Amino acid sequence: MQFAITTAAVSANPHLKPLVSFPRPSPQHRVRVHPPRHRPNTRASAMASSATQELTITRPDDWHLHLRDGDVMAAVLPHSARHFQRAIVMPNLKPPVTTTSRAIAYRDEIMKALPPGSSFVPLMTLYLTDSTSPEEIKIARKSGVVFSVKLYPAGATTNSQDGVTDILGKCLPVLEEMVKQEMPLLVHGEVTDPHVDTFDREKVFIEKILAPLVQKLPQLKIVMEHITTMDAVNFVESCKEGHVAATVTPQHLLLNRNALFQGGLQPHNYCLPVLKRETHRQAIVSAVTSGSRQYFLGTDSAPHDKRMKECSCGCAGIYSAPVALSLYAKVFEEVGALDKLEAFTSFNGPDFYGLPRNTSKIVLRRSPWKVPATYAYGSGVIVPMSTGNTLEWLPSDQPEE
């Protein structure tokens, strides 16, 4: 596996200065940097030649994706299939995907909606409820279709009303069976107690639910989804590698909570968990770009009709699938860590899940492109993250062998 940088110069952006210190494990994979044929002698010539820069990385996977169903799925699926080889597909439909038979049916719907010739592989997830049985976990493992179980605390986010109310009480037998079956638990890490401040919901979840869960079942593989705080970083890195990991979204790497209010209320920057302070954003960037194998790509791309975002009670969710790879590359470049991008996008996830890494490649070229204002679907439009902005990195649409 090789990460190649072909360029006349590397960007001279300054390194981010994190406000906290984190371990810097040595990268697992050696990086080879290919020197340019004609080395520039000045910074000006280096900047001028940066338009020819290319990154060739192993084709990534998305370990946290919302595809919805119906017309919306048909519209958004090609955006993920274009850049990602596999994706863990979230089960919070109406009704939720709570059984293996429903997961198989949902997978069939996704496969039928794929563009002709696509090699995209959906990895299905069960929606954990208070009444999920250990037997269902056995069936799921045998199916070869279901790869994880998702914990939504009841009422935590979109379509989570059927979620869990007592994880260590009502769900313990299921969790014990998941240990036996080596089935990862994917956690939406927020408490739903209305007395807890919205910006503290992740921190309190770690203290009251996640830490006791890890202590009770240390062999359970857990992915803390879409982490947003320094508290989550500290917790993940306090846990044993290979048992606790985290996915990170482009919005939580690039935006802080000011993005919700700049120039007026910005509904298309509203997601759950909600954006946090700049100190938390910097902590996450520092952790993700450190080379630690406990973090991997999970966009949490969540499409909603524009009308459902721009209304009196807007939906939570940011649609990032078309721009995600461009934005992740931006983050890693800004801190001088492009050599660590491939492990985050393409290696750490499959290694944690015990799946083979992809063998095909994808090329990201430094070719500025403008994000469309909207993407149309059957009866409406969806507004993407970074709508109308110009991004520097353009991923290729076709895999390269």
From TrEMBL:
<comment type="pathway">
    <text>Pyrimidine metabolism; UMP biosynthesis via de novo pathway; (S)-dihydroorotate from bicarbonate: step 3/3.</text>
</comment>
<dbReference type="InterPro" id="IPR032466">
    <property type="entry name" value="Metal_Hydrolase"/>
</dbReference>
<keyword id="KW-0378">Hydrolase</keyword>
<feature type="region of interest" description="Disordered">
    <location>
        <begin position="22"/>
        <end position="53"/>
    </location>
</feature>
<dbReference type="GO" id="GO:0044205">
    <property type="term" value="P:'de novo' UMP biosynthetic process"/>
</dbReference>
<keyword id="KW-0862">Zinc</keyword>
<dbReference type="InterPro" id="IPR006680">
    <property type="entry name" value="Amidohydro-rel"/>
</dbReference>
<dbReference type="InterPro" id="IPR002195">
    <property type="entry name" value="Dihydroorotase_CS"/>
</dbReference>
<keyword id="KW-0479">Metal-binding</keyword>
<feature type="domain" description="Amidohydrolase-related">
    <location>
        <begin position="62"/>
        <end position="362"/>
    </location>
</feature>
<dbReference type="GO" id="GO:0046872">
    <property type="term" value="F:metal ion binding"/>
</dbReference>
<comment type="similarity">
    <text>Belongs to the metallo-dependent hydrolases superfamily. DHOase family. Class II DHOase subfamily.</text>
</comment>
<dbReference type="GO" id="GO:0005737">
    <property type="term" value="C:cytoplasm"/>
</dbReference>
<feature type="compositionally biased region" description="Polar residues">
    <location>
        <begin position="42"/>
        <end position="53"/>
    </location>
</feature>
<dbReference type="InterPro" id="IPR004721">
    <property type="entry name" value="DHOdimr"/>
</dbReference>
<protein>
    <recommendedName>
        <fullName>Dihydroorotase, mitochondrial</fullName>
        <ecNumber>3.5.2.3</ecNumber>
    </recommendedName>
</protein>
<keyword id="KW-0665">Pyrimidine biosynthesis</keyword>
<dbReference type="GO" id="GO:0006221">
    <property type="term" value="P:pyrimidine nucleotide biosynthetic process"/>
</dbReference>
<feature type="compositionally biased region" description="Basic residues">
    <location>
        <begin position="27"/>
        <end position="41"/>
    </location>
</feature>
<dbReference type="GO" id="GO:0006207">
    <property type="term" value="P:'de novo' pyrimidine nucleobase biosynthetic process"/>
</dbReference>
<dbReference type="Pfam" id="PF01979">
    <property type="entry name" value="Amidohydro_1"/>
</dbReference>
<dbReference type="GO" id="GO:0004151">
    <property type="term" value="F:dihydroorotase activity"/>
</dbReference>
